[in-house]
Specification:
globular; 11 strands; alpha/beta; nine-stranded mixed sheet; 11 helices; single chain; about 40% helix
Amino acid sequence: MKINKISPTTSVFTERLSLIDDAPERLYYVGTLPETPIPVVAIVGTRKPTKYGTEVTQHIAYDLAKKGVVIVSGLALGVDALAHRAALEAGGVTVGVVINELPDISPRTNVPLAKQMIARGGAVMSEWGAGDGAFFTKASFLRRNRLVSGLADAVIITEAAAQSGTLNTAAHALAQGREVFVVPGNITSPLSEGCNNLLKQGATPITEARDVLEAIAPHLLPSHKNGAQTNLLFGDTPAETAILQLIATGVRDGEQLQQQSRLSAADFSTALTMLEINGLVKALGANQWTIR
């Protein structure tokens, strides 16, 4: 397997990692990274999911991947592996972020899954390469989590206990300005306690993939085919309308919005500010925008 070494700014897929706290200096990956802007969702959760956790993870990951969303996770046992497999079953692309020095992959039982991911157009990524001499501890998993959330537009937690390491990923996501979506669980199940606590703290509840797509990629929903959503969006000025229609087509990065709208920096800033004040758009962090 060829191991590629890049800086975060080298790839359109990884460039947002250059903006997070404790940004990685370099990244290693095996496989293929998306070459164009595309919606990315991280799905994480317990390593020992219940039947309920298994079903909701497979259902949501499959439906998102079927719509063209890249699924990111940590290639661990449990929810991570379920999300990766569901994305492959949907014919989608999925990327795993591991703590090991590539080409090593842990757990070894997921090596066949990693190979499938790579063969289907995805990748396995790490902050470490052979010979880096990384010393791995429990904290290594927590550091890895910042990359999982940092790559994504949003993070979904399908099932997690109260003390789950998954909650660390949620904390990174919030610090990075990513939206956190949580699947509600049985209030008597210990493996749903972490999810239900996040919901009480203000995380967004979801029951299906559409809930996420409406927030991060409305242009992928059936009701927005053939430019219907673009035609219905209007601001108070031509500049506001141009920005709204670009976001509706999937452009979410602030710099790309300004370039494609062909507005001056001052006019763009004014129009975007008014759209936010009027409740038509909202910031997701890291200069990413979506329609409310």
